[in-house]
Amino acid sequence: MSATVFSYTQLVHFTEQVFLSMGCSPVHAALATKTLLSADLRGIDSHGVARLSGYVRLWQAGRINATPNIAITHETPSTAVVNGDAGLGLVVAPFAMEVAMKKAENVGTGWVTVKNSNHFGIAGYHAMMALEKDMIGIAMTNASALVAPTFSVEKMLGTNPIAVAIPAGDQPAFVADLATTTAANGKLEILQRKNAETPLGWVQDQEGGHSTDAHILKKGGALLPLGSDREHGSHKGYALGSVVDIFSAVLSGASYGPWAPPFPAYIPLPDNMPGEGLGHFLGAMRIDAFRTADEFKWHMDNWITRFRAAKPIAGQEKVLIPGDPEREMTTIRLETGIPLVAAVLDDLLQVGKLFGVNL
Amino acid sequence: MSATVFSYTQLVHFTEQVFLSMGCSPVHAALATKTLLSADLRGIDSHGVARLSGYVRLWQAGRINATPNIAITHETPSTAVVNGDAGLGLVVAPFAMEVAMKKAENVGTGWVTVKNSNHFGIAGYHAMMALEKDMIGIAMTNASALVAPTFSVEKMLGTNPIAVAIPAGDQPAFVADLATTTAANGKLEILQRKNAETPLGWVQDQEGGHSTDAHILKKGGALLPLGSDREHGSHKGYALGSVVDIFSAVLSGASYGPWAPPFPAYIPLPDNMPGEGLGHFLGAMRIDAFRTADEFKWHMDNWITRFRAAKPIAGQEKVLIPGDPEREMTTIRLETGIPLVAAVLDDLLQVGKLFGVNL
Questions:
Q1: N or C: which end of chain A has fewer CB within 10 A?
Q2: Do residues A211 and A204 make contact, with C-beta atoms less than 8 angstroms apart?
Q3: How far is B18 from chain A (nearest CA, A)?
Q4: Which residues 2-61 on chain A approach chain B with CB closer than 8 angstroms?
């Protein structure tokens, strides 16, 4: 596939102008841009600038408030509920993570659940905010229902990611960021563009049968929970995705399960939504609320070094630490730029035209 | 397979006598029994009374202290580190969970990491302690290394379970309790007894190749992380198992990764253990630290009812809520008793003989 390469700075400038044109404050436009493009830097192309037009369309549909009054509506020393006021998740979630970290400073840990928000980009960005403060960061979100629980034909859950960022010493941080499905939706999108089939175990058809059709979601099919089928533990992926849904949305008062608001603006909101908007769950744990940061980091380095040295299977890659591929991609893309496939570029040019912004 | 059925009360009496004979206090013997047998009631036969002889052998080997001085060694308002003093995890983990719940009462949530412990039975038991206090309970533990990370020949992680218990209203509680592997070790043990093969994707051989041999762990093979292979997301199961290891053992000062102390007493302790004993991580979140318990429970009932009503795949089971099968099994086994296969019964009779206790 042909791709045009843009520097990170070019995409930052363009994206910021778009958010400003939507009416975001300069601070929010800069933050939303940084959050969104962290996905492109980390190589998670489905969640970065490729989604910008989606946010614009949600704003056009009146589902995103560009000037939200993001506020704490309930709190205890270690917890809070944040109302995102229908703002961009890209700015609502960092607000909530700051609250969590402040609480962790005060009482050891902080846990914040968020309602009335929108798509927050990659979970890893929010979890990683904790690293520079010597805290462990945790981030989850619910999302549009694309996933069928074990034994279900119906789509009931989003790809509901879990991210955990853990500081180390001389070694780079441990950063896990995973959809609770076998394959993230972004991987399907890549196969769709190539007109290629999925491996067995990624999706099911409209009757719950086996499928390798990368377009099956548009035909009533569904993504499968991590584990693929009952025999290989799909009930575990389903349970993990459910925990993310409940922590993010039932605990906060957001709309959960099959009622989660869809990302594509052309899909109508579900009837009888039981809560407000999308939900997130953010956590921060101060390392020295458990043991000294120096001691902990020494052992994390030891952990990472030992795992990296695990004997690899002949002919396969070496054993990786969660976060390795994304960190390496960030280095590459900051140096050589971010490639955009033609479909994404066309989409961005349309967005630029709408607001009179050049890419 | 032939099985002999015992009432729950019979097994309680026998198990308690065994723990008392090891020198446990009456309070500890009763608690350890309740924790251990919760597995048999819930149908997780691999983690219940079938393990009693394993605990006895660890005690004989001097690796379990029957009269531990379990103590908090560090704390903040929302966190604590507990030193289990080499006690039974079956009593150490409930102590730690009580500390977590006390902290949740005070500041909204409580998070306790534990070092110098031993196998704690099923994670679900500890998580479920939170339910009656209108709290969400979380429990994790690291364990003997039986699992190969993605691309690794070497076994680096335990089956490292995650349990999350969430209260509901009229509906029974949501209780997820899952090993972060495709199949728990207990499922292998069942196949071993039947001389049956495993499905593909549960285990790998000593070179990291495909295997369906249920005995492969004794031949240098390994269990696979949830996801089975890279294409189906095994890097996610590996990341989740790693998070459990780090929260349970690196954060607490227990021995982590391939250095986790093995459960079978005949396996020597690893050289250069970087910490003390096994580690656990327990968490409690007060529901009303986020929203009123009544409101939350109404929405959990709504969540559960909607998921149960999801359209099922023709010819398959109805859609289940995590915890459904275990709760139904508990009802059955309290009424009709707990079946023990011949190998387990023989083992228990040997233990009984050792201490002069009749089953």
A1: N
A2: yes
A3: 34
A4: none
**Which residue of B287, B303, B308, B321 to mutate against A (max A Cβ within 10 Å)?**
B303
- How many Å from the N-terminal Cα to the C-terminal Cα in chain B? 20
Q: Could you tell me the two tokens for A284?
A: 């921060």
Comparing CB atoms, the residue among B77, B174, B274 nearest residue A77 is B77
Superfamily of domain B183-223: Hypothetical oxidoreductase yiak; domain 3 (3.30.60.50)
What is the distance in angstroms between the CA of the first residue and the CA of the last residue of chain A? 20
Interface test with B, best of A82, A109, A292 (most B CBs within 10 A): A109
Q: Which two tokens stand for residue B79?
A: 């966190």
State the best of A72, A76, A78 to mutate against chain B, taking most chain B CBs within 10 Å. Answer: A78
Q: With 90 as the cut, is the pLDDT of residue A1 above it? A: no
| Ranges assigned E (strand) in chain B | 3-6, 71-76, 79-83, 109-117, 135-141, 162-166, 174-178, 203-204, 210-211, 222-223, 278-286, 338-341
Per-residue pLDDT tens for B240-270?
999 999 999 999 999 999 999 999 999 999 9
Q: Where are the domains of chain B?
A: 3-182+224-292+325-355, 183-223
What average pLDDT does range B268-282 have in this prediction? 97
Tell whether A235 lies on the interface with B, counting CB pairs under 8 A.
yes
Query: Would you state the structure tokens that stand for residue B325, as one six-digit string?
Result: 């099968």
Helix or strand or coil: residue A210?
strand
Segment A56-71 shows an average pLDDT of 98
The whole-angstrom separation of Cα B223 and Cα B245 is 16
* Separation CA B100–CA B106 (nearest Å): 10
pLDDT tens for each residue of B71-122:
999 999 999 999 999 999 999 999 999 999 999 999 999 999 999 999 999 9
**pLDDT of B42 above 70:** yes
**Binding-face residues of A in 198-217 toward B, CB within 8 A:** 199, 201-202, 207-209
**B316-330: per-residue pLDDT in tens?**
889 999 999 999 999
Of B268, B293, B247, nearest to B114 by C-alpha is B247
Which of B259, B246, B254, B263 shows the shortest CA–CA distance to B82? B254
- CATH class assigned to A3-182+224-292+325-355: alpha beta
- Tell me how many residue pairs between chain A and chain B have CB atoms under 8 A apart: 259
Domain B3-182+224-292+325-355 shares a fold with domain B183-223: no
